[in-house]
Amino acid sequence: MLNRDNSLLIIIDIQEKLIKAAQNSNSLINSANKITKAANILGIPLIITEQYPKGLGQTDPSIIEAYPNVHPIEKTSFSAMQEENFINEIKKFNKKQILLCGIETHICVLQTAIELISNGYDVYILKDASSSRSEFEHKSGLDLLQQYGAKIISTEIAIFQWLRTSKHPHFKEIQALIK
Prior knowledge:
The protein is α/β, with parallel strands linked by helices and 179 residues long. It has helices at residues 16-21, 25-42, 53-56, 61-66, 84-93, 105-118, 135-147, 155-163, 171-178; strands at residues 7-12, 46-51, 73-75, 97-103, 122-131, 151-153. Helix 7 links the parallel strand 5 (122-131) and strand 6 (151-153). Helix 2 (25-42) runs antiparallel to helix 9 (171-178) and helix 6 runs parallel beside helix 7. It is globular. The two termini are 23 Å apart. The relative contact order is 0.18.
């Protein structure tokens, strides 16, 4: 089960041009905003990546607004684990449970997750906060991620596992995000 003290949220490439091409982009942004706001409220660290922002644009502004003071890490590799700045950020937080979401499920999310798993991290994929250009590729990516040992969950599952109880001091504030 997720432990908020050992969790790190990573948002992969939820950028302007990729959002326009992604399936269910409104749902994707809504879920990404919920998990980002919840992480901010609960003090769970966040890393954001951007794949070649000069060509694909910036991270959706609503995600940046949901967790101020986080600066995206630019990358050109499909796996963020190929970027030294990204690896340094992960090591800085010293967390073993990685919640991962973004675009595209079958490319950058998949390759990053596989390398995280091979480096001993416990990876959770937020399927409602991830997408690809086609539903087939999204589902294919999720299937392969599961075969590699990633846990496929939803945003609400993650949030309520972080909370554990309705007596949590931030429960009402988090509950407002869900409604």
